Amino acid sequence: MGAAKSGVGVASMGVMRPELVMKSIVPVVMAGFYGLIHQYRPKAKSHYLFDGYAHLSSGLAAGIAIGIVGDAGWANAQQPKLFVGMILILILAEALSLHGLIVSIILSSHAGQSRAE
């Protein structure tokens, strides 16, 4: 999801300002990086549906956050001074997605336990 939305920003950047295409690839790389991180799952004896939903929701939230920043990267073609601001917003989105990853791993580790334990 994040790579698709960021790809729209890269394509529009390529049309408007081809010399800035390499700068606009940063959100695509970050979306791919977090996609790979969200694929990590510790080996468990049994798989719970809750685990799947926890990882799906955190990965989707990370992808959407990074994708929206990448899609808005076309503004960088209009004003090159906005590149630093775009990177700062991307870092903020990454912090939220890292938090989502940590929460999903914590939820996955407690998914099979009952409240009585």
Automatic annotation (TrEMBL):
Domain of life: Eukaryota
Residues in V-ATPase proteolipid subunit C-like domain copies: 58-107
InterPro entries in the record: ATPase_proteolipid_c-like_dom, ATPase_proteolipid_su_C_euk, F/V-ATP_Csub_sf
Record localization: Membrane
Source organism of this protein record: Brassica carinata
Lineage of the organism: Eukaryota, Viridiplantae, Streptophyta, Embryophyta, Tracheophyta
Record-annotated membrane-spanning stretches: 20-37, 49-70, 82-107
Name of this chain's protein: V-ATPase proteolipid subunit C-like domain-containing protein
Protein family according to the UniProt entry: Belongs to the V-ATPase proteolipid subunit family.
